[in-house]
Design brief:
about 675 residues, mainly beta, six-stranded antiparallel sheet, disordered N terminus
Length: about 675
């Protein structure tokens, strides 16, 4: 009896094994190869419940025009697959393509790639097809090297792609990644529980996304529903349309637009449109966009971003004073932002419902060139005064750029006029600059001519420094270049008091180096270098030395310390401006303290993120003397990028009070309000 039971069990096991392994139908495969069959099932090539990678790739490589991934007893398990041109892949109702566990060890392994293809389609029948990965496995450092590029679907270098009625779940990167495409339609898809993004659009033209959901993204930044973010200056975002889509419960934003590397001279005008979309209950905010050219500073970003009949709402509090909707615009960019019939439910958050930021990224003081049209902003749970906030780091006070109307929770309509905008945050701040070029520069150095240490104050990128030497003096100055990421060696140039500029060496990353030269005349010598990263420090010199800030505004990154500046006796007025990085993914700020020559603190702000200006009273300015400004870690937000500008004073900043240049009495200071852009070249 026992032997019969064992025999029966063996027969049943064999039947089970046979039922989950589909037999290869060679006749059908041959017919596909001859072009006789235009439609084929993947199971013609077989089925392996443990690993169907070779089976599926062979089916795809057959180039049959219509390939059906047919339902089996269990999901199709696979390693990375690549699609081909002129093929429609159809998933039968509920069919699941699942990433093989333990595979996808390469950081960029993708479950399905449509790369270098044309006229490819991915269609789910019935309730749709499923592409599923194993996010928690990839997030485990014991199992996988950290990565944000293990996508479920990658569409790249492709044309005429159509994806419809599919789910993209639990990737180790994005549900869908789109880069360098022309003509992509995505309809009725769900991107759920992905590691980095529901969907990323890096570069593309003529992209339509409609009737889709991007939800529950959590793992690594930006952790948003969708992110439109070119990697390089010339990657266009043109004719991108989202219609009837939902972005919800993502760990950061629902909709993120971050073209920080983009340049319209190379990539053309930007055009992005959201219609009838809902962003709700995202952790950091519902809609967030910025055109901050951190890599192509001064180069243009031109185009149009529209939100038509969209809704942003939440039932939970965001991070510190986060608005539901925010748009940040560099002052020199020319964007047209349109909010038409935008509805906002602010929820328990205390921030403005909608915030516009005009940022001034360490460049010329210019008025904002972008326009913002707010047509019928509907507020569900706040008054008009809490509906719109403006941060104007241009300090220009220009109000013509923002127009429209607001309807508050009680149905009252308020026009966005000049008076309203000044209450919302647009305030003009005066500039002060005077011609002190006829005054002599005086500064003392070490009496014995030996090297002395200076307090460290790191400068990024275009770093400039001054030295004061006597004729015939042997000058030595030491710099540190702290290596970060891919720092490259920087050429170092010296400019003499006569204006002659020559190269004196190369500053190498990760080293402290000393440069030497003989002064041919008494006066200020300038040293400049264009480094590729963020941390150059003047560490020591055998003469008086210090920093030359950029002519208009000095950009700083993570630097703390005290700088000293001289205000000439009889100066009619001077001012100090400081502003942080307001619309980054995390606000970056700095604590600012300003003290007069007697040591009295005349200004202190523990968290400068929005622009502030300290204007010295005339009585203080006329006294002249050495003032100091101290930068420290902020009370709120994090220390990061900030800008400062000192107007109406000497442009030579000291790292020590006894090594700070003063303007002697060789000439006479200008009085009144004569404007003159003071720069180191004036001395």
């Amino acid at each position: 009896m026992r032997k019969k039971q064992m025999l029966l069990a063996g027969i049943v096991a064999g039947m089970t094994l046979f039922s989950v392994h589909a037999a290869v139908d060679q006749a059908k495969i041959d017919a596909v190869a001859k072009g006789e069959l235009k439609e084929a099932k993947a199971s013609y090539w077989g089925f392996d419940p443990q690993d169907s990678t070779k089976i599926l790739q062979a089916a795809i490589n057959s180039k049959v025009p219509r390939l059906i991934i047919d339902k089996q007893a269990s999901p199709w398990i696979s390693e990375p697959l690549r699609g081909v041109s002129d093929q429609t892949i159809v998933f039968e109702d509920g069919v699941e393509l699942q990433a093989k566990r333990g595979s996808f060890k390469d950081k960029a392994d993708t479950l399905l790639s449509l790369r270098n293809v044309e006229n490819s389609r991915l269609i789910g029948l019935g309730k749709g097809g499923i592409l599923r990965m194993h996010k928690k496995d990839y997030q485990n450092p014991k199992l996988y090297e950290r990565s944000e590029w293990r996508y479920t679907l990658c569409i790249r270098d492709a044309k005429n792609i159509h994806v419809e009625n599919m789910k993209f779940l639990s990737s180790g990167g994005d549900g869908i990644y789109i880069g360098t495409v022309d003509g992509v339609t995505v309809k009725k898809v769900v991107c759920d529980d992905n590691h980095r993004q529901g969907m990323s659009i890096i570069c593309g033209k003529n992209i339509l996304v409609e009737d889709s959901e991007f939800i529950n993204t959590k793992g690594t930044s930006p952790a948003s529903g969708v992110d439109l973010e070119p990697n390089w200056a010339g990657q266009p975002l043109q004719n991108i349309v989202f219609r009837n889509c939902r972005f919800a419960n993502n760990d950061r934003w629902g909709i993120l637009m971050a073209p920080s590397r983009f340049n319209s001279d190379k990539g053309g005008e930007m055009s992005i449109r959201f219609e009838n979309c809902v962003a709700e209950n995202n952790k950091e905010g519902e809609i967030y966009g910025f055109t901050r050219a951190i890599y192509q500073t001064g180069e243009p970003v031109v185009g149009k971003i529209e939100f038509i009949n969209c809704t942003a709402k939440n039932d939970r509090k965001y991070g510190y004073l986060r608005p539901a909707v925010e748009m940040g615009l560099d002052v020199h960019h020319e964007m047209n932002i349109v909010f038409k019939n935008l509805t906002i439910q602010r929820g328990p958050n205390r921030a403005k419902a909608l915030r516009i930021v005009f940022n001034n990224p360490r460049e010329e003081n210019v008025k904002p060139a972008s326009t913002v049209e707010i047509d019928n902003l509907k507020l569900l749970d706040c008054a008009a005064g809490d509906g719109l906030g403006v941060i104007d780091c241009s300090f220009s006070g220009q109000t013509e750029n923002i127009t429209g109307s607001i309807v508050d929770r009680n149905g009252r309509k308020t026009e966005i006029d000049e008076k309203f905008l000044k209450r919302a945050g647009i305030k003009a701040q005066p500039e002060f600059s005077y011609d002190y070029s006829d005054r002599a520069v005086k500064v003392s150095g070490p009496a014995d001519g030996k090297m002395e240490k200076y307090p460290e104050f790191p400068l990024p990128q275009e770093a400039k420094f001054w030295l004061y030497a006597q004729a015939g003096q042997d000058v030595e100055v030491a710099f540190k270049f702290i290596k970060i990421r891919r720092s490259e060696p920087a050429a170092v140039f010296l400019t003499s008091p006569s204006g002659e500029r020559k190269r004196i060496g190369t500053l190498k990353p990760g080293e402290e180096q000393t440069f030497k030269f003989k002064a041919d005349a008494a006066g200020i010598y300038k040293i400049d270098m264009a480094v590729t990263d963020l941390r150059v420090i003047l560490s020591a010199a055998n003469v008086a030395a210090g920093i030359i800030p950029r002519d208009i505004a000095q950009w700083v990154n993570n630097s703390t310390g005290t700088l000293y500046f001289y205000v000439p006796v009889g100066a009619p007025e001077f001012a100090v401006r400081v502003w942080g990085l307001v619309f980054s993914m995390r606000e970056q700020a700095v604590k600012v303290t300003i003290s007069n020559p007697s040591g009295k603190v005349v200004f202190r702000n523990n968290t400068v993120a929005e622009g502030i200006q300290y204007t010295a009273p005339e009585s203080e300015a006329k006294k002249g003397g050495i003032w100091k400004i101290t930068f420290d870690k902020p009370a709120k937000f994090r220390l990061g990028e900030y800008n400062f500008r000192i107007m109406g004073a000497s442009p030579y900043l000291g790292l020590r009070p006894d090594r700070t240049p003063v303007l002697g009495e060789a000439g006479k200071a200008e009085s009144g309000n004569k404007k003159h852009e003071v720069s180191p070249d004036d001395f």
